[in-house]
Write a structure and sequence with these properties.
3 domains; Immunoglobulin-like; binds alpha-D-galactopyranose; globular; TIM Barrel; alpha+beta; nine-stranded parallel β-sheet; Beta-galactosidase, Chain A, domain 5; 13 helices; 19% helix
Length: 732
């Protein structure tokens, strides 16, 4: 039993293997947050203190008691209009224009298994793996009800939260703000860790100490965005990679979001994740409800590394779905950086031929195969194969590729339309715009209104016609601009932006139901929509349009805090790199790409015979390690933002097999030696470096580390495989 209810004190305890979360419905029916952190036992409500705090008002129920204030108490779902002056999880505008919702406890339900959410992605789990707590709250005046949902995955140290807001009254209300998770901390000094970025440089690591005031990140772009990832950490000030307490929040949603951390007048901290508040107006008529997307919570008392591994496992095993979620991904070669728009069917066949020789499993025909599309100014929306350009039908092309023993994949961007397209000529009103104003262009294209079913249905049918032309085993689903001009005739822009995301999910759901064996890789100008919501439909996402191996060290480092390696699309590309002009050895490019799904993004015709030989070996190496890489535990051993080298390792669950990866980022004259310390090994066991045959104790590798060679040359890299030989013993 992970969830316990103690009737006498109205306390709910959610226990996971190593953590405890406690909630209390107090004597006034306020739902208080009592505790979240390392596992404890007993009632934690002794932590709640009551003092008269000036200018922190008191609800009428408390009578003359000036020590009871919503402005001070830690709450599960704080609402605006209750005397809580901090930022709140819920803001409701009532029919009379008032902004108030005073939620009180009504009832609870505990069930086996994990709840699901209508039309939204959410963590899934078997009946035995999870339990659900549902708490019902109600505002007695407006009759707005909120069902707070908690999913507990005991073994994985994961707790999920979501909220369903329903108008059970007779008057209409408008939801102006809604979060799915709120954590109120009574004490502690915390750092806020977030992952900011831009196109071609996503998810940079940033850590800042919380001060009095608020730290807010989010997206207003209609997608989760390159600029801030919807996954953040609140870490105790002294928490490191390997020690200290830290709390994660990952939003299972791919649209506008907001995450806030606020340190209040007493030094208490409120940490929230939910919809972006700006432009969020969501009307609820009688009986209508709003489902707030889920937030995945996790706590680690053993630092950031462990927190990441908890998320990796949950996302890999309880978010990603489909045949490929647990299957080795094909090594693929993508035509984008090999040819951009400039290819014929013969070129794709040649690419497949070269791929076969190198040991690559799949060729992907990227942008440019449909409509009138010779550059990025036209053709989107016209999902008809350009047979003239290919010199054959798509079916014939696929057959030619398959005959060479290579699988076939294709690029699509279903959510978009070019003004220069047949679709736009026929249905200009399908593009999102504000009537009477010229739309904002992005990459010279407009966004189709995917909140409309007829629009989705049309595109779906067009895409299916393409997919039915042959054995297409993979699609890359792209999305190359931010939303703008979001408009609804009723003035409910928030509803429309939400409807857009639900539309994308609906489309993807239909697609994977119709083609259950298809591998879908998400993409949005690289990693502009890299979130747990998309991973529910697409088990891998192209991590960045920046394929430079050295920049990728940072991008992939930031990505690794929440997302498993199996989700990270990463390829070896040509040098000088097309985004940075940097030249890095093929070996180092391979090592960097092996921290992902692995593949190539170059024209093999331009490679020398020696390079081709090297690639053959590289692919064999990757395939040898693929399982360990994709399902092993991931350890960060250094930071590319601080250290002279970036190192990480993969470790099998039984700690018997490890793959150490090191890339030198700096080189200097007469350079000192860096030592890399491994992690997670069995201390007393003996590990053999497979290549040299040299043996070390697990403790030695972890405590003293290994010297990284000082060698001549930039961005040198090393990959070392270790195998556990004996569980203990003297081996000297
Ligand atoms: C985006 C993607 C690229 C490529 C191009 C094609 O930028 O991220 O990988 O597919 O679109 O136009």
């Amino acid at each position: 039993m992970a969830i316990h209810y103690q009737q006498e004190h109205r306390i709910f305890t959610l226990d996971t293997k190593n953590t405890t979360y406690q909630i209390k419905a107090d004597c006034y029916g306020t739902l208080l947050h009592v505790y979240y952190g390392a596992k404890v036992s007993g009632n934690m409500d002794y932590l709640l203190t009551y003092y008269d705090r000036g200018f922190s008002g008191n609800p009428a129920d408390a009578g003359q008691d000036r020590t009871y204030s919503m402005d001070i108490l830690p709450q599960e779902y704080p609402c605006a209009g209750t005397g809580d002056y901090r930022s709140t999880a819920l803001v409701i505008r009532n029919a009379d224009g008032s902004e108030c919702c005073n939620l009180r406890y009504v009832s609870y339900k505990i069930t086996k298994g994990k709840y699901g959410l209508p039309k939204l992605p959410a963590v899934y789990a078997s009946e035995d793996e999870a339990e659900t707590l549902e708490i019902l709250l109600e505002d007695s005046v407006s009759k707005v009800q909120v069902r707070l949902l908690y999913g507990v995955l005991e073994e994985k140290d994961i707790i999920t939260r979501s909220a369903i807001i329903q108008n059970c009254g007779t008057d209409g209300v408008v939801v102006e703000k809604a979060a799915s998770a709120c954590l109120d901390f009574l004490s502690g000094d915390y750092d806020f860790i977030s992952f900011y970025g831009r196109h071609e440089m996503e998810r940079n690591f940033q850590r800042a100490g919380l001060m009095h005031g608020s730290y807010v990140i989010g997206s207003r772009r209609g997608t989760s965005s390159h600029q801030y990832n919807p996954a953040v950490i609140l870490a105790e000030r002294n928490a490191t990679e390997d020690a200290g307490g830290c709390y994660g929040m990952a939003f299972v949603y791919s649209g506008n979001f907001m995450c806030e951390a606020e340190k209040d007048q007493l030094g208490q901290v409120r940490f929230m994740m939910g919809f972006q508040q700006d432009s969020f107006h969501y009307p609820l008529g009688q009986g209508e409800e709003l489902v707030v997307p889920e937030t995945i919570l996790s706590y680690s008392g053993e630092g950031l590394g462990r927190l990441s591994r908890q998320y990796h496992r949950c996302i890999r095993e309880n978010i990603c779905r489909g045949v490929y979620s647990r299957k080795a991904r094909p090594v693929l070669i993508n035509s984008w950086e090999a040819a951009y728009f400039n290819f014929t069917g013969d070129d794709i066949c040649k690419l497949a031929g070269e791929a076969a020789e190198l040991g690559i499993d799949m060729v992907v025909m990227d942008d440019g195969w449909f409509g009138k599309r010779e550059d990025d100014n036209s053709g989107l929306g016209d999902w008809q194969v350009n047979e003239e350009k290919l010199g054959c039908t798509l079916g014939e092309l696929i057959e030619k590729v398959n005959k060479q023993g290579v699988k076939f994949g294709i690029w699509i961007e279903p959510e978009m339309v070019s003004e220069d397209s047949n679709l736009y000529q026929e249905h200009p009103d399908w593009a999102i715009c504000i009537p009477g104003r010229s739309p904002i262009r992005g990459r010279n294209q407009l966004v189709l209104d995917f909140s409309r079913e007829e629009v989705r249905e049309y595109i779906f049918n067009q895409i299916c016609k393409v997919l039915d032309q042959g054995r297409i085993e993979y699609i890359k689903w792209d999305m190359n601009r931010s939303l703008a001009d979001v408009y609804s005739a009723e003035g409910h822009t928030g509803k429309m932006a939400y409807g857009y995301v639900l539309g994308v999910y609906d489309f993807l759901d239909k697609l994977i139901q119709r083609y259950p064996d298809l591998l879908v890789e998400g993409c949005s100008g690289g990693g502009g929509r890299f979130d747990a919501g998309m991973l529910y439909y697409t088990p891998q996402i192209w991590c960045s349009d920046n394929t430079d191996a050295v920049d990728r060290l940072r991008i992939q480092y930031g990505t690794s805090f929440f997302y498993p390696v199996s989700a990270v699309g990463s390829h070896v590309s040509a040098v000088p790199n097309h985004q940075t002009g940097r030249t890095v050895s093929l070996h180092t490019r391979g090592v960097a790409a092996m921290a992902g799904t692995f593949g190539y993004e170059l024209n093999p015709e331009k490679l020398s015979a020696k390079e081709k030989e090297e690639i053959k070996v590289q692919i064999q190496q990757y395939k040898k390690y693929a399982e360990l890489i994709q399902t092993g535990e991931y350890y960060r051993l250094s930071s590319p933002f601080q250290d002279a080298y970036t190192a990480w390792m993969f470790l099998s669950d039984d700690a018997g097999h490890a793959l150490l990866n090191i890339v030198m980022q700096e080189v200097h004259g007469n350079m000192g030696v860096s030592y890399v310390k491994l992690k997670g090994l069995s201390r007393d066991a003996v590990y053999e470096d497979v290549e040299s045959g040299r043996c070390y104790s697990g403790a030695a590798l972890m405590e003293a580390g290994l010297p990284i060679p000082v060698e001549y040359g930039e961005y040198l890299s090393y990959q070392m495989e270790f195998v556990k030989k004996r569980t203990a013993g003297n081996f000297l």
